[in-house]
Design goal:
- The complex is a heterodimer.
- Chain A is an alpha+beta fold.
- In chain A, 37% of the residues lie in helices and 10% in strands.
- Chain A has seven helices and four strands, in the order H-H-H-H-E-H-H-E-E-E-H.
- In chain A, a hairpin with a 2-residue loop joins strand 3 and strand 4.
- Chain A is elongated and about 50 Å long.
- In chain B, 40% of the residues lie in helices and 13% in strands.
- In chain B, helix 3 crosses helix 6, helix 13 runs antiparallel to helix 14 and helix 14 packs antiparallel against helix 15.
- Classes of the chains: A alpha+beta, B alpha/beta.
- The interface between A and B is large, with 48 and 62 residues.
- The structure holds flavin mononucleotide, iron/sulfur cluster (SF4) and FE2/S2 (inorganic) cluster.
Chain lengths: 184, 436
């Protein structure tokens, strides 16, 4: 739920010597995004999209680094970042599967699709398959209602799903490299 | 009423296989940026007046007159910002996505015109995070527009340079609410602000800001080029112009269609969407937040006067989701209320707790564990929340209110049928004091 401040950080911040905000990300924020807004803080969403794109999740250390870059406190960064569902604070599978559960998709049979995925892959909402390949999220309307039931795999749209057809699609996902980026 | 074919969608073929991205050159070849050049030669107040005269009302849900909104900007305070609302997270709504997926320049031209009229320094296109391919399309189109000098240039006779940027959301419905959007733009949680001050006075970065929906802005090139009268010739006296209407749910040909405002919903469904699959029972006509149209309201005209006449909140996004006779309306209510419980930003107790409580009750009723008094209580929880009863900061809770109210009042027997038989014996089941 958007309004719960998710307490996903550990009591201490595990660190690594290599920064999460790489030179490339920092440059992009400083050169491309800072000039766009009157405040540095406004680059927070773009920054976390870049971090999500790079790592697929936001490590606790990245919050500290973001605070330094944006010139605000770490708690302010965490306060803002945890509000947004697309930002995740632990690693997920190689493929993030967002299945829409809102009303147009429900009318067109999304429940059967979800049930089949859960049965075949043995995962529930928010869970990842044991091989680390697929993480399932049930999400609200994706704005793809004319293609209901609809889903996204790493941001790529999947239309007019059928239970068997979609399970096939998921089974065929390459195990090694993801063919497209992760939607960030 | 005179609608002679698509205006906003004129560059996008009906046939899905022929649709492709319209690039700058194709756009200009088909008359694009002509209105922009006209606007460059106009005085800002003349542009504002023609928009006012056209009767253009906001396409984002609230239907506020666009030209009037622009006049709320305080004189002589700069910089001014434009926030383009491309959040489009209302369930059942996908019109803005469709338009800009193929024709991003019609939006950019609209932004450029609004910029000239209001002397905007920076326009931020706030696009929902899930539309990430659409964001890329916009970025590409923006690059073209910058190269051609549409943006990044000072308005004639001023030193105000107009910039335009894409700003991506990250998965929160509430960022579609205009002040939630501004907070997200500023890098904070998308918590709607208490008004006043209104955004026109102190919006993004505490500066005067206009917020307009994508489709509202996309109407501007037509209005500038053809004049207010041509725009007013479409639609009804209170609802002028063409409108994008998405149709989904139990229909044969779901999709986005364009018609003039005032078209009866039934006609839209039959003329464009291939008719209802099965027998019509109910429909959301403007996203879920407006409530449902009942079985005898199939022919409700889709215009801004729909609210009072048909017992719904308003026109909303005019995106229609049809439900046939196989639909369980209690489950529909449960799905919608779950949406609000999930998307509530949590600032206001009636919204945060009320939606979660109502969701639990609807689960209980769906599972056959409901009690006779539940329906009255459910209605009470619904009616207690929203800006209109005055208990919340923003209009998200009015959506909860109207979904509960309209489904419960238009389909009370379905709720009664699910309630535990023994609790109904010997007692009257009522909804708001009315016996079911
Ligand atoms: C909870 C909530 C969500 C909203 N979501 C959107 C949205 O996704 N897109 C939009 O254009 N307007 C949305 N609105 C309406 C905006 O607050 C605002 O009225 C609109 O963007 C103004 O533009 P317009 O006058 O051009 O319609 C939403 C309002 C509320 C209360
Ligand atoms: S009504 Fe709901 S969504 Fe709107 S500000 Fe209050 S708690 Fe947040
Ligand atoms: S309801 Fe599923 S995409 Fe809109």
């Amino acid at each position: 739920m958007a309004w719960i401040v998710q307490n996903r950080l550990q009591p201490y911040t595990p660190t690594r010597s290599e920064p999460y905000i790489t030179e490339k990300i920092r440059k992009e924020i400083e050169e491309k995004y800072f000039p766009r807004y009157p405040t540095k803080r406004a680059a927070l969403l773009p920054l976390f999209h870049l971090i999500m794109h790079e790592y697929g999740f936001i490590a606790a250390q990245a919050i500290d680094e973001a605070a330094t870059l944006l010139g605000i406190s770490a708690s302010e960064v965490q306060d803002a970042a945890t509000f947004y569902e697309e930002f995740r604070f632990e690693p997920s599978g190689k493929y993030v599967v967002n299945v829409c559960r809102s009303i147009a998709c429900e009318l067109c049979g999304h429940e059967k699709v979800l049930a089949k995925i859960k049965e075949i892959f043995g995962i529930e909402n928010f869970e990842t398959t044991e091989d680390g390949l697929i993480t399932l999220f049930e999400v609200e309307c994706l704005g793809l209602c004319e293609f209901a039931p609809a889903a996204l795999i790493n941001g790529e749209r999947q239309c007019n799903l059928t239970p068997d057809g979609f399970v096939e699609t998921l089974k065929k996902l390459p195990k090694e490299v993801a063919p497209h980026d992760n939607g960030h | 009423m005179a609608f002679n074919g698509p205006i906003l969608l004129k560059r996008i073929p009906d046939e899905a296989s022929q649709r492709k991205l319209i690039r700058y050159d194709d756009y200009v070849a088909s008359g694009g940026y002509k209105a922009y050049n006209q606007a460059l030669a106009m005085k800002p107040e003349d542009i504002i007046n023609v928009v006012k005269d056209s009767g253009l009302r906001g396409r984002g849900g609230a239907g506020f007159p666009c030209g009037v909104k622009w006049t709320f900007l305080p004189k002589d305070i700069f910089p001014r910002y434009l926030a383009v609302n491309y959040d489009e997270s209302e369930p059942c709504t996908f019109k803005d996505r469709y338009l800009c997926e193929y024709d991003p320049h019609v939006l950019l031209e609209g932004i450029a015109i609004a910029g000239i009229a209001n002397r905007i320094s920076a326009s931020y296109i706030f696009i929902r995070g899930e539309y990430h391919t659409q964001a890329k399309i916009l970025e590409e189109a923006l690059k073209e527009a910058y190269e051609k000098g549409i943006f990044g240039k000072a308005y004639p006779g001023t030193d105000i340079v107009h910039h335009c940027y894409v700003h991506r959301g990250a998965g929160a419905y509430i960022c579609g609410e205009e002040t939630g959007l501004l907070e997200a733009l500023e890098g904070k949680r998308g918590w709607p602000r208490i008004k006043p001050p209104f955004p026109a006075v102190a919006g993004a970065f505490a500066k005067p800001t206009i917020i307009n929906n994508v489709e509202t802005l996309a109407c501007l090139p037509y209005i500038v080029e053809n004049g207010a009268a041509a725009f007013k010739a479409m639609g009804t006296p209170t609802s002028s112009g063409p409108k994008l209407m998405g149709v989904s749910g139990h229909v044969n040909k779901p999709g986005v269609y364009e018609e003039e405002l005032g078209i009866p919903m039934g006609k839209l469904i039959e003329k464009y969407a291939g008719g209802v699959k099965g027998k019509y029972k109910a429909a959301f006509h403007g996203g879920i937040s407006m409530g449902v149209l009942g079985t005898n309201q199939y022919d409700a005209p889709l215009d801004f006067d729909i609210g009072k006449a048909f017992g719904v909140l308003g026109l909303g996004t005019a995106c229609v989701t049809v439900m046939n006779e196989s639909t369980d309306m209690v489950k529909v209510a449960r799905n919608c209320v779950r949406f609000y419980a999930h998307e509530s930003c949590g600032q206001c107790t009636p919204c945060r707790e009320g939606s979660a409580w109502a969701y639990k009750m609807l689960n209980r009723i769906c599972d056959g564990r409901g009690k006779a008094k539940d329906l009255d209580l459910l209605l009470e929880i619904g009616l207690a929340q929203g800006i209109m009863p005055g208990t919340t900061i923003c209009g998200l809770a009015d959506g909860t209110n109207w979904v509960i109210k309209t489904i419960l009042q238009k389909f009370p027997e379905e709720f009664k049928a699910k309630i535990k038989a023994e609790s109904v014996q010997g007692v009257d089941v009522t909804v708001g004091g009315v016996k079911v």
